[in-house]
Structure formats: C-alpha cells, structure tokens
Amino acid sequence: MNTEIELQSDIETLRGRFRETKDLYREVCALLFFRYGITPTASKLYQFVRKGSMSAPAEALAKFWEDLRSKARVEIDHPNLPSELKASAAEAIAALWREATAAARHELASLRLEDQAAVEQALGEEARARQAAAEALASAETLRHQVAAAQESLQQRQTDLEAERRAHAGTVARLQELQRHLEEARNQQERVRVDFSAELAKAREAVEVANSRSDAAERRALLDIDQERQARIKADKQLEALRGQLAQAESRHRESMLAQADAVTRLQIKADAAEDSQRELTASNRSLVDDLQATRERLAVAQQEATQFKAEAQTLRALLERLSPPEPVPQPQEVPASKAAKTGARRVR
Fold first, then answer.
1. What residue segments make up the domains of the chain, in order of their start?
2. Dist CA 341 CA 331 (whole Å)
C-alpha cells in the first residue's frame, strides 16, 4: 500500500516534469522497471498514467524494451580478431553484464528492503509524530480553551478591577465630600460653641438677675407672709371678740326671750283671768283695755327688740362663717306674737 502511494507520488512528479505523452510513458516504464522492479505492461502503464490512447503505452513499452536490449548488447569491434573470438568475448562480457545486473538487482532489492524498513519506521515515526501532533493539538486546544478561560477571567477581573477602581474613585469622592462636610460641621460647631458661650454668658447674667429678683421677690413674699400672719392674728383676735359679742348678744337674746315668754305667760294668765272675770269686771273694762293696750305696746316693743337681736345675731353669724367654720347655736323657742295678740284680743272681748 505504501509502495503504491510512493509510486503514485513519483508518477505525479514525472507528470509535472514531462509534458509529452511518449516521454511520460517512457519515464514511467523506467521507473517501474529500475526503481520498483515491476515489469511494465501496456495495461499497467495506462492504469498509472491514464493519458492518450491505448496505443501510446504499447508504443512506449516497445521502444523501452528495444532501447534496453540495445544498451544491454555488447559488441566487440576490433580488427584482426576472429568472429568466434568476438562472439565468445561478447558472450563473456554479456554474462558479466548479466551477473553484474543480477548483483545490482539483488543489492537493489536489499536496498529496497532497507528502504522499505526505513520507510515503515519513518511511517511509524510519522504516525507517532502525528499522534503526538494530535495530542499536541489536543493539548493546544485544551491550552487554548484554558487561555480563553484565563482571558475571560482576566477580562472579568479587569472589569471587576475597573468597577473597583470606579467604586474606589466614588468612595474617595464621597470621602472627600464627607471630609468637607465634616470640616463645615466642625466650623459650624465652633460657631455654635461661640454662640452658645455667648448665650450661656447672657443666660448666666439673666440667671443672676433672676436670682436677685427672686431674692427680692422672696423677701417681699416673706414680708407679705408676715403681714398676712399679722393680719390673720388680728383677724383671729377680732373673731374671738366677735364670738364674745355674739355670745353676749345670744345671751341677751335668750334672756329677752325668756322675759318675753314670762311676760306673755303672765299676760296669758291675766287674759284668762280677765276673760273669766269679764262679767265681774265690767266696771273696770276701760282700765283693763288701757292695760291691754299698754301690754300690746310692750309686746310690740319686745318683738321689735327680738327682731333686732335676731338681725344682729345673723350678722354676727355671717361674719363668723366668713372668718371661721360656724358653730351650732341653739335657737330659743319664740312665742308667736300673733297667738299672744289673739289671746289678748279674746281677753279684751
């Protein structure tokens, strides 16, 4: 198989060197016979060359054998030599030529075997080289994929690095902005501290003024409290005096009421006695009427005094209620003036 491949390769080389069909067939005959040891035939020549008609390889083959025989024939042309000697010498030289040709062919076969072994070794080495090349290509493809992945990773890292750089630049810008804001805040804080110190000084002055005013107000309040205490003591004394006066007025009122009750009782008794002795005392009716009129006048005066005492008692009680909690005062039982008047009227009648 390898021989056919080499033969086809050599024929293609000869096809490029010889354009004429006859010359190409002649060179192919020599190639088959001398190099590859193949006896050329017309069919083989046409099978390998495939150029021209079928007569072209036959003519080229006949011309090749004729040239080969003419070159292989040995002719000895020497004067004065007999023809038998010439023939014997020619046969001997031809035998030597044949032996040399056989030895050359044998050596050529050995060389062909060596070349075949070398070719097979070269083919094996070529196969191994191709396998190594395939493995190298696979490794190269793997390395190419790895390099592509590494490039993608590097691109991604470069993108991330660029993003980190932009983020770092943004962070630096924000940091500078924050530092500027911090410096402004410090300046504002310093201004606020100065303003606060001024306000604090003003507040301290105001506090001192307020403390002085508070001390003065406290002193005034203490004076007012002392005055109120003195006024309360005075009011308590006045209340005690009014209570004494009220007690005296109530005592006088009770005594007056008791006296009036006694008088009314006596008058009632007198009226009853006068009514019983009306018939007997007809003569003294005028004097009794006068006495009754006087009694009525005294009763009216007593009622007026009782009313006056009651008004005074109510006034004192109202004043006492304003100054202190009121104390229960027993009310004396009064005799209705209308009833006494009616009784006197009945006695007069």
1. 239-276+286-348
2. 23
